[in-house]
Amino acid sequence: MTGIRRNGDNRTGGPERPLAVSDDELERALRETLTRRVATSRPLPVDPAGAVLRRARRTGRRRTLTGLALAGVATVFVTTGVAHFSAAGGDGGTPTVVLGDPPGFSPSPLASGPSITRFGPVRAELDLLVGDRLDTSGGERRQLTGVSGVERAQRVHDREGWLMTSAATAAGRTLWWVPANGTAPQVMLAAADAVAVSPDGRQVAWRDGPEVIAAGVVAGQLIAPVRTPAPDGAVPVGFAGDAVLIQQPDEGGVSVWERALGGRPAPANPDVRAVYGTRPDGRLVGLVTADRPGQHCLALLDPARDLAPVRTGCGLKLAADGLGGVSADGRWLLANGNARSALLVDLADPGASPAAHPAGPVLAGEVAWTHAGVALHVDATGGLVRVKPERVLAGDRPTASPVEGLAPGDRPVVVADVPATPEGA
User: Which residue ranges run through the membrane (predicted)?
Assistant: First the structure.
């Protein structure tokens, strides 16, 4: 450490010696500083930390991260005494000093994916759409830019995303595809008169002008569309396997369109007022007119025979609005009754008088069933209602729970899950 270099490393285009600093050289500097500190009984005329720093500067201003950390620790040593990192037991043994980052340490990269937050532990068994916010049953929360006024939402098979249908407006209905990877929602259909989505999200049918169109859905794209002319006012309302269910105008009933075969829909069954869902055996659960005016019956319908009733039970007082849904195992129907209450109907034996039980507030929209057999729906107040059949049979009456972040006048939308795949399928 004698003299100053005439050509400092920092004043030339390139350093005249290597910039790498060995651990031995830095350790010697630290030991020399500590030795002088111990041997001196009076205030030091110079700052030993400064000596360490000057030595480091002459070694090279551009140093590694470990060298900088060592210089910082040396400063702490000479200004505050000895920094003692002992074992957890504090046995007073030889101090261990950790300089710099642990071996193999590297900063974690910042996440570059979509912003997803998690909410509290209390959440619905199915996904919920609250305005433009999607709260998943797994605890994730996403803002859906450009999505608004959704009336129905459906999970897509293999957890590929969601299909969301808007309520009817002067401009028609909109169908959005929301990818599961967090990218922005995409408009699949716009200005459609009506939209129906299959339970697994693989098929979509819609009314466009004088035609009803059906197509497959693959990765947010509509493929292999098939068209058929339809009377004014006829709209697709659901699926029975690959067949499309078309509601005829003016209480003309429901017809079945085998879109894979092409051609026109089969003759409509004028007695069918609504279809609640499909049982695992392929038969549909529907609402049909009774012999007495103003009354309706519950029926199992055969889609292969123009929705001909297989069994009919007329001992129920079901509302004519057709709101309701069938459980994943086909055992239960939750639908609106005439007495300002939802009814839980046992479909195990839908004979002359199937068993029905009051099941809390009336449905204000679609009902969705979990694979575990719990029904979720929204009531007129915008509250979320959970209906568990075993609790209803025990005499409990479900009540509505408030939904977090719900704007005044809005209602959440329960997202329907895809049917469970049968074993061996």
Answer: 64-85
